[in-house]
Design a protein that fits this description.
It is globular and about 35 Å long. The chain has one domain: Alpha-Beta Plaits (2-Layer Sandwich), CATH 3.30.70. It is an alpha+beta fold and about 100 residues long. Helix 1 runs antiparallel to helix 3. The termini are close together. The chain is about 40% helix and about 30% strand. Strands 2-3-1-4 form a four-stranded antiparallel β-sheet. InterPro entries: Dimeric_a/b-barrel, DUF1330. It holds the Pfam family DUF1330. This is DUF1330 domain-containing protein.
């Protein structure tokens, strides 16, 4: 079964609230087997809107990534991000 990536592009507008989101989201992601590959490091924007915070997490499967996003724990974490950031998030299945 192929692994899957969460790829998020974020512009934080409220550091305090987003910090609350990040702390809670970290636990929810780990609970679903997610591990961070990139988390806000140096980047070079080549196309599209610049989002200074870029995050990539690997999950054991597309289903695990999907279940994490829709879990109660992640949705509770996400409530802190709403209004605290401009963001895009997608799940991409990796090539085997």
């Amino acid at each position: 079964m192929p692994t899957a990536l969460w790829i998020a592009h974020v512009k934080v507008t409220d550091e305090e609230a987003y910090g609350q989101y990040a702390a809670r989201a970290t636990d929810a992601i780990a609970a679903h087997g997610g591990v961070f590959l990139a988390r806000g490091g140096t980047h070079e924007q080549l196309e599209g809107p610049n989002r200074p915070r870029n995050v990539v997490a690997r999950f054991p499967s597309l289903n695990a990534a999907h279940d994490c996003y829709h879990s109660d724990a992640y949705q509770e974490a996400l409530s802190y991000a709403k209004g605290a950031a401009e963001r895009e998030l997608c799940i991409v299945e990796e090539i085997e």
